[in-house]
């Protein structure tokens, strides 16, 4: 949104009571400060290319109500006529310009061919949108970096708008401006001041401003905009006292639309969305629990809402993007309809569950069907607003195992739809699937999907079980392409008793054709993914407390000999059988080397015994690889903090991303060696097991209410919920009994992990309480005064509400990963269009995906996912040194957190606030506000996880970095020591992260001249890195720091040894021309020469060796500088030797906080830390992944100050001087001595040339060599001197001098002149040149 110029900031009040205050004023409301001049409906273009749409907007031109210098006329654009809501766009006309295509320079309005074509295109697009096709007059408004396409519906209307807009424009109407040209070129073309110049944000970093100077509107249609330059953004002081204001602020935009406008960024988390009233819910056709959907006949007409959901979704899904931008647009449009559909479905599902007890008893004999092609007759099915909703099963008569099977089946269907859509997109196959969402509320699962009309107007094209002879070959070929993308193989199946066919996917899939809309619908995908099973897997528990005795009929029948043997060894005959609810993850299939068959371990698998056994063996082998090889690798990534889930509730997302099912949490707990990871996993297992028990009992309670005809059940339900939470979290005998009899067996059954009572009692109860609320969909009051030692720690009075848990389709989420890597092909070589984006574009796309998927009403509601997404944006801005933007996104992230005082998302947001503020502090007095935010974060960490949790390290590290930036090294070391103690306690002394903290501690000790402590810490870090076989770059850098430390102590030999070791490692892994190798060569050379700085005696062999090694190092630096295309392309330390404890001349290692604390995104976004990419801790693409969790210190890479070209001259002098000192031949020594004496004989006492001496001896140097006498000039022709310099640069000073001395031996007189010039270059500031 483009807003008016902000008003001057008022004087701050005398006193402030907030904990963290940045004085602000209330934002100006244009509706109150302006008066309307003209208003009406206009068409506005949204999107670009094939996705461009013209939509009606209500536009108001408003001028200031009173004369105020700070107010300007504005153009307000609303989605609706209702002006009570904030405008969608606010365009400041004082900084805007208008272009009317086709208007001549004199304003006569004569149309060109291009203008007529544009009008025709507008009319065509508007006509397709239902607005008619005549009279449209387009014009373009340029404001800051945005371009707005408008079109009036009639010629008279457009003339009226032009007349009222022209007086307020920054310049006159701009005829014929070419929008493809930059503003500067347009200014030249129009021979006037550049209209519509981009006004850059004053808060922007200078470097970034230079990078972003190019105009954004480079095409005729709306281009992909990364940054929207917005007006004032005001942050009201809230619970944390946060408030801020800025004169200009940039928000991320995608496709010329801001992801979040400043108004939305301000109010996110505070926007109260009105709840749906009963009148707003559309009338149902029958009672919700008894309705059987009725269809009239084949002429059944879809309702308007059906068109809204299914038709729009299928139309977008059927699009075949022609380019990468179109693919991204398709993904965003899918997410928009998915989010809106889910939001509407949640409202209906909540009412279904809340009114469940009001319905009459279920009629006996009702069957439970959950197939998408059969749900019209499912129990409790209802049709409303073009969507069908039904319970996952008949909860009144279903047993616990039936409920579990139905939940697993619906989850598998949703997951398979997601996989199928992505694979079809990558394979270029047009195949439609259902728009589906799952809602879990009060223990019930409601399945919602858009009505596809499969019953009445569709015909089956592919149905092996019902019509095996009518399977369309073209459909089978398309399914084969989809299966190839998923890594599924073509396999044989048995149909009936005698028919055998080859299928590309699972045998149960069905494809229906809609002849009216020419679409093919793929349904019944829940068995798409292979089962996860191998016969050696045994389950120690045959039943679960939440489901009672096992029902054998729910298990598939195994057919291989291996399975038969496994069954024979089982007492029950079923505990070791494959389960349809246990399936491999699609992410695992993508990384697994072999293609698998979907129907392994089923009755229809294989056309014969050999093929059946082969299919089963392949899947069994994959399952074994998952358990025995892949999961240990995932655990290793967790232990090494390469994967950092924020808390237990998000570890499932990380495991799914890596292809591991949540049921393997027990294996993770067994494998992990890090205490806090084991505790986090145990908390997650306990919370998930409690969810099963709680939901089972809650469903039973609701069914009981229904059977007795109860009407007021909400209070009883909440009392029961509070009681069960207290039983789980209390410190009583009943709590221990509940654990032993219910929770422990449930954990054993679900996760195959035996949790001891001692371990359970030592789990951090606030963290467990938070996880239980998350999984159970229950919300208690946010507070830190819960007493978990009390009999009832969770009283009913503190229970707020029940929260629906939702799952939906994720669109084309894999495009985000492609845009991050920039790779155009996936691992299977699919022909996917190449997507290349910069970091800002990727972040804008990621944020847009997230907020589009939420739905219009849920967009600004509190959500930890939204908080994490905004924190990612803040981390990106921190990484790119745009701290004003980082702070504002971090504050928005804090506002969006569900628990602003104790939640983990709030802690991450505060860490980003601290980092942004820490990079803007200029004095110790500025640290007060930062420390207040820090203390709030520490309080949250202490309550939720405990003070020793690694999450606190992200807070300590950023405060330490802020003090380091101010060069307050003692305070920096104090906060860093807190993190180091946590690392030693929670991660252990042998952990790689601990080594990083020890290394930084050594650097801080070095800055405080505490040499012994520095050496001790750095030596410990080096030992850890060596033991762990860490990347060689880490070891090389610690050697470099140790060299500085020993040099500060005065131990030159040890310092040189470490420097040389560092140099050899860098050259081995990166080559001699890498900036790190160059810096190491400079350090080594300076240390080699430092003991002989003022030495005037005879050169001993040791000194000569040091000189030769120093020359070698200097010449490598010389070659790097000579070959470097840019003087700022990287480099090492200053050429001058540093006597202090720090590498680089006078500046400290980690001289800014960006060098000591980095987010997990830095390896992608910060060009100054490309060395850190090998840590593997980066996860840009997933907005649900926190930007930084736990340790924030990367391996201790020293900064690389730029090497200027002026250093070439200094290096030349040093190399020549050292080379001449190493001359061994007596004749050469005599020549050098004579030339030196002669060069200095014609200078005065100040070393300057004495021009009064005109004798012959003043212009030449007599020199005898091998019986011959030579006269060497004291002053030289500039051409000759220039040639000498060029020759030195062409090879190197050392090699050049060797050649000169060889030519002197050959009695080459010109060589003497060149040697004299070289001596003057090395030993004087200037070379004597002839006039």
UniProtKB/TrEMBL annotation:
Residues 539-550, 1135-1151 have a biased composition (Low complexity). Keywords: Cytoplasm. GO terms for molecular function: mRNA binding. Coiled coil: none annotated. One of its GO terms (biological process) is intracellular distribution of mitochondria. Residues 1-10 have a biased composition (Basic residues). PROSITE patterns: CLU, PH_DOMAIN. Gene3D superfamilies: Pleckstrin-homology domain (PH domain)/Phosphotyrosine-binding domain (PTB) (2.30.29.30), Tetratricopeptide repeat domain (1.25.40.10). It comes from the Eukaryota. SUPFAM superfamilies: PH domain-like, TPR-like. Residues 35-170 form the PH domain. GO terms for cellular component: cytoplasm. SMART domains: PH, TPR. The keyword Cell inner membrane does not apply. Residues 1-36, 173-206, 536-558, 1126-1151 are annotated as: Disordered. Pfam families: CLU (PF13236), eIF3_p135 (PF12807), TPR_12 (PF13424). Residues 283-536 form the Clu domain. InterPro entries: CLU-central, CLU_dom, CLU_prot, PH-like_dom_sf, PH_domain, TPR-like_helical_dom_sf, TPR_rpt. This is PH domain-containing protein. It comes from Chytriomyces confervae.
